[in-house]
Design a protein that fits this description.
Bound molecules: iron/sulfur cluster
Structural class: alpha/beta
Number of strands: 10
Strand order of the largest sheet: 1-4-5-6-7-8-9-10
Shape: globular
Helix content: 25-40%
Number of domains: 2
Number of helices: 14
CATH class of the largest domain: Alpha Beta
Distance between the termini: 29 Å
CATH superfamily of the largest domain: Aldolase class I
CATH topology of the largest domain: TIM Barrel
Strand content: 5-15%
Radius of gyration: 22 Å
């Protein structure tokens, strides 16, 4: 699902005024919701996933395409293109008397002058980024931390030089990759400007990890998370509710809490399991080998997880799959779905109270994962 925008390879003159509509840079298919909320610039440093084997994902979001490192030279060219677009947008702002501030009037004027910009994804992204402060960047795709450290450092430094106002640079990282980097390498990356990592923990249970072929052990997850925190990196750990199905629900919840207690990340973000055709885990489900939990069972799993959490993290339900409701109208979600979530330990009891509230509501009022993937016939 690569955003296959054409590149302009005509050399430095391409940044001359008037050619804005021909500028483009590469963008990958996904980013964490919180980076969308921050209006982060998406910059593709690597392509696809270096693992592609997790049985609940299988790299499908990247069309199972082969992982590729991009050359530092190519990534720098994309940064140059972002800079050229940003410079033109700011020049327009000065021209209109806004002193470089990027506001809606600037965009309206630019699109009026060149209507093709309305469909130019690169222009739209840079405009949106600057409009909302231009301070955060997300390096795509699934495991950019796997880049040789000197290359990733070169990219992060070049980015910061081009845009000194950047306050946060973020990437996805596999725990296995993170565990293999030395503490000194991570510290150097952090000093250069890499400030936040999103890690798919999924579960802290070794049996579930092996079953879904996550390619990492609970011990490695702990090592990775602790190292990231020690290096000064802000850490979001993603947990997949129901990943062990009915059979392994309790061990999944308890061991995930155990691992999270060791890591004590800044954020714990819940992503309940969704399966669909083409995924190995879906085949297990279709054959009756793997049983999905019901909405109440999933809530009880969250309850076990929360009861066993002893962290100072924030627990966030920032995804539509956390769709438990307060009543049968399905208008009010049980948990708030913002990016900051609930602060632990202060709001732990509040979360537990909400879970009890959800358990008191008839199960049919909550959306079952089968409804969400149109599998009610199974
Ligand atoms: S590492 Fe992430 S992107 Fe890759 S297959 Fe696993 S869940 Fe999917």
């Amino acid at each position: 699902m690569t955003n296959d925008l054409p590149r302009d390879d005509s050399g430095t003159d391409k940044f001359a005024s008037g050619k804005l509509s021909s500028y483009s840079f590469e963008v990958g298919p996904i980013r964490p919701p919180s980076e969308g909320g921050s209006h982060s610039l998406l910059l593709r440093a690597t392509r696809n996933c270096s693992w592609n084997r997790c049985r609940f994902c299988y790299g499908m979001i990247y069309n199972r395409e082969k992982f590729q490192l991009r050359s530092v030279e190519d990534i720098k060219k994309d940064i140059d293109t972002v800079k050229a677009i940003a410079d033109e947008i700011k020049a327009e702002s000065w021209k209109l008397g806004y002193g470089g501030v990027v506001n809606a009037d600037v965009g309206i004027d630019m699109v009026r002058n060149d209507p093709s910009l309305r469909a130019n994804q690169s222009f739209i992204m840079v405009f949106d980024w600057l409009h909302f402060g231009g301070s955060t960047v997300f390096l795509q795709d699934a495991n950019t931390l796997i880049m040789p450290t000197d290359q990733l450092l070169a990219v992060v430094k070049y980015l910061k030089e081009a845009f000194p106002a950047i306050e946060r640079i973020t990437s996805y990282a596999r725990a296995k990759t993170l565990a293999k980097k030395s503490l000194d390498e991570l510290k150097e990356l952090n000093r250069a400007g890499l400030s936040r990592l999103h890690v798919g923990l999924e579960t802290g249970d070794d049996e579930v990890l092996a079953y879904v072929d996550k390619g990492v052990t609970a011990a490695e997850q702990i090592e990775a998370g602790k190292k990231a925190a020690e290096a000064g990196l802000e850490l979001s750990e993603y947990v997949m509710i129901d990943l062990g199905g009915r059979a392994m629900s309790e061990q999944h919840a308890k061991n995930t809490a155990r691992v999270l207690n060791e890591i004590n990340p800044d954020f714990i973000r819940l992503r309940p399991l969704m399966v669909g055709p083409g995924l190995p885990l879906y085949e297990d489900y279709a054959q009756g080998v793997f049983e999905l939990s019901s909405p109440h069972e999933r809530l009880r799993e969250v309850k076990t997880l929360v009861e066993n959490l002893h962290v100072t993290s924030r627990l966030s339900f920032d995804h539509f799959l956390n769709a438990w409701y307060r009543d049968s109208t399905r208008h009010n979600t049980l948990f708030k779905q913002d990016y900051d979530g609930y602060k632990f330990p202060e709001e732990k009891n509040k979360v537990l109270d909400l879970i009890e509230e959800g358990l008191r509501i008839d199960e049919s009022a909550h959306i079952h994962v089968k409804e969400m993937i149109g599998m009610t016939h199974l």
